[in-house]
Amino acid sequence: MAKDRLEAVGVIGLGIIGSRVVGVLRASGHEVAVWNRTKQSVAGFCGSALEVVRVVKVVQLFVADEEALMGVLEAMGQGLTMEHVVICSATVGPEATMRAAKFVEERGARFLDAPFTGSKLAAEKGQLVYYIGGEEAVLERVRGILEASSRAMVRIGGVGQAATVKVVTNLISAVTVGMLAEGLRIMEGMGMDGRILEEALVENACRSGVTDMKLPKMISGDFEAHFSLKHMLKDVEIGESMAKGLGVEAGLTGEVGAVLREAVARGKGDWDYSALHGGKGVGERVAGDE
Questions:
Q1: Other CB atoms within 10 A of residue 23 CB
Q2: What per-residue confidence (pLDDT) applies to 60?
């Protein structure tokens, strides 16, 4: 397809990820209409969420939580038609995702459950990975749009199942980073350089993508947000609620949730969640505490 014939896209939610997805979509040749609850001076900014669906047929949502998701959908509601596809890339859990899908589909439009993994740098480079839940025909309708901002798409199943996988993988990341922070503090307490742990993990089975990303930041004290602590807390709380509803024992999830809540209460919610290293909750190593 010629570059000038690529479909126009709407992006709602211009946070760390959404703003960067707009950039890669435009770089790939898509016209992009945007909207955010906080007005921003950016190209293509529309007057409302409703205006977005009046000028484009595909809208991708990067909003923060269930309240924002349903608020945006209600605002778009009267503009949705059978020609529209709503791609939900918000992390809100399966129940909220299925409610959103029902709202969209009752208005004749189609819905794709498409949360992602990957943080700020991945979004900038068009290297996100989408977990896909929904009908194959809907995915094919928007595949080219998702390919512009991703390196892979993992087909999960139905609507709500991709949302479940996203929450579970974030729980694993949260607990991993919590334990990494504790391990690093133990080493530092023994008078050891944290870089020794970094070297040791290279040949250790517990090494992972998240340890590779977060440990150097912990060692240097660089807690600029790539995935904010407050958003990780939101995801962990979704996981806690899911586990409780299913009668699943989730002690580690509860423990890391308590630590994250304390960190947010101390005013560190906008820092990267790797800032858990700074002591119980978030402590002295966060820039600005001194």
A1: 14
A2: 98
The secondary element (H helix, E strand) that includes residue 127 is none
* Tokens describing residue 204: 């250790």
Q: In angstroms, what CA-CA distances link 88 with 26, 41, 138, 166, 168?
A: 19, 24, 12, 12, 17
Looking at domain 167-278, its CATH class is: mainly alpha
Q: Which residues contact 16 (CB under 8 A, 6 or more apart)?
A: 119, 120, 123, 225, 226, 227, 228
User: In angstroms, rounded to a whole number, what is the distance separating the alpha carbons of residues 14 and 195?
Assistant: 35
Name residue 180's amino acid: L
Domain range summary for the chain, segments of one domain joined by +: 3-159, 167-278
pLDDT along the chain (290 residues), means of 10: 72 97 98 95 96 98 97 97 98 98 98 96 97 98 98 98 98 97 95 96 96 96 95 98 97 96 95 82 33
* 249: helix, strand or coil: coil
CA dist 59 and 97 (Å) reads: 15
Alpha carbon distance 274, 216 (integer Å)? 10
Both structure tokens of 20 = 């960067």
Cα(259)–Cα(178) distance, integer angstroms: 8
CATH number for the domain running over 3-159: 3.40.50.720
Alpha helices in 17-118 (DSSP H): 18-27, 49-55, 66-76, 94-106
Of the candidates 30, 12, 29, 38, the one whose C-alpha atom is nearest the C-alpha of residue 90 is: 12
**Full-model pTM:** 0.92
Residue ranges with strand state E in 98-231: 110-113, 116-117, 128-133, 150-157
Beta strand pairing call for 32-35 and 150-157: unpaired
